[in-house]
Amino acid sequence: AFLNIVEEPEQNLFPSSQWEMLKSLLQFKSQGPYNRLVLTTHSPYIVSYLSLAVQAHQLHEKLQKLGRADLIENLVQIVPLHAMLAPQDLAIYQSDEVVGSISALPNFEGIPSDNNALNIYLRKGNELFDQLLDLEDSI
Q1: What is the spatial distance between Cα 78 and Cα 76, in angstroms, rounded to a whole number?
Q2: pLDDT tens per residue, range 3-60
Q3: 104, 93 in Cβ contact below 8 A?
Q4: Three-state SS across the chain?
Q5: By the 8 A CB rule, do 120 and 94 touch?
Q6: 56 C-beta neighbours (distance < 10 Å), count
């Protein structure tokens, strides 16, 4: 078994590079049934790409059941087979620095919720920027 613990792998990486890095980490995880990946991140892109990996896995299972090898070929061009992640193999926790707690991120059919702390901070930044634009428009 290979237990890979990676802290903040997104540091100094553009979002597309974060996806490439995550695919590599998931490839190491997929090389053995007991391999595990533990990851810490402040990147909303990483959370989004993990959702992509789970969605791809679920779609792959559906396409296999339907015997749609033609569509599986298209799918693996988007998300390689080694980067697909079964929902039961993913657990995402988020911390609340105000309350000092850690909680599991909810999911919908195995896909991590978009209603998470990282996305809330992105939304807040966009709202503040909108306020600046409104103020500028009033000049």
Answers
A1: 5
A2: 999 999 999 999 999 999 999 999 999 999 999 999 999 898 999 999 999 999 999 9
A3: yes
A4: CCEEEEECCCCCCCHHHHHHHHHHHHHHHHCCCCCEEEEECCCHHHHHHHHHHHHHHHHHHHHHHHCCHHHHHHHHHHCCHHHCCCHHHCCCEEEECCCCEEEECCEECCEECCCCHHHHHHHHHHHHHHHHHHHHHCC
A5: no
A6: 19
